[in-house]
Write a structure and sequence with these properties.
With 40 residues, this protein is mainly α. 55% of the residues lie in helices and 0% in strands.
Length: 40
């Protein structure tokens, strides 16, 4: 039997990767604040 979760790295990166976060305000706010690390 096949397991239910079939991970797809490309889809995951598009949804919650670095560039997906770039589209929201989170990273721009952090850069403005002068953060050393923008994401963990």
């Amino acid at each position: 039997m096949k397991r239910t979760f079939q991970p797809n790295n490309r889809r995951k990166a598009k949804k919650q990767g670095f560039f997906a976060r770039m589209k929201t305000n989170i990273i721009t706010r952090r850069r403005k604040k002068g953060r050393k690390a923008l994401t963990h």
